[in-house]
């Protein structure tokens, strides 16, 4: 998913007839309409408020996209109807200029309207879009395991009716979102003011599009079989939206909702057959990671209680989050020099280590050594995970306490990561509230920590970017 798509995003939402646009990654979750609407594979629906009442339209939507020289052109077309015979047709083209700051790991976007055409007929009144002005800016923070983004938009739409009435809609809004291999969510808020001969009306749209991937165990019931069950990777997507309106000259105040779901996509994964995991507390964690290809063990024995080394853990984190790796130049014949003297560039997983180094996820034990076979400590593991998430800067100003009894034993280079990892639930202390930064981790313990890391990417971010934003604001 994330590895094969370009990183920018579109915020495009509006209530009823307002068209917004903000660039997002192509594999992102983003409400793909201009009216606070939602859709599935077959149908799109939205509410329109120009007549003074909430009128639900549904029908077909198409989106086309073209990119050239850091400029993205996106075209939306809608053909919608209402049960009372009302009709809506809309075609709008947006152009987004992107500025990629690779030195900062960030991308900024600026969006404008290139062309527009919109006509709505309700009863005997026809509303034609006569002018459309929009200014939008967005920022994407490109982190190794997940991108985080935010945008703001302001604009004005002017409609002319067949009775020569002018209706103006002023709008402003914002969006927040993230996107990674395990999930993507965008939540958008837009406030609209409709100005007409009848007075003023106010509409607020809240809409969220969310994608998730989950691992589900599927039992294999026949007793005469070579395996007892395996995991499936299930990708789901759903959209939820809410319009709150205050129309003094029409329907008064109220709220209407829209929601749609996609049909889940199911992918069956390889079946692990380790013989030394029965009854082990980390069996499910290990088998999940093996099914995903995070562990590529050829032996039938995983040895869960043996030490996890630095090389295996770093590679495992990048594989589990589907973090992009550097590519070897096709015309390069001789093996290139390794970034650390104790690494072999011919190793099949070497590029994961080099990518982790250049992305700031993992560092060597010195300027020349990575110590790939060295044991992994809890401090090292936590630092790798938090750097991958890009959240190390969320720690307080230096001088804070982590809350652990052995706070003073935590190395300075790991302290921010330990604080953040504790706050987001990746790690916790032992029975005596000690973090034990230098404790060497077993393969089982490391597996459990990676699974918590994946749960954060899948569930915790969705909770924060959708549920917390929609239901607690």
UniProtKB/TrEMBL annotation:
Pfam family, one: SLH
InterPro entries listed in its UniProt record: Cell_Envelope_Struct_Comp, SLH_dom
Keywords from the named record: Signal
Top-level taxon: Bacteria
Domain SLH: 269-331, 336-399, 401-464
Presence of the UniProt keyword Lipoprotein in the record: no
Signal peptide: 1-29
This protein's name: S-layer homology domain-containing protein
Organism whose genome encodes this protein: Bacillus aerolatus
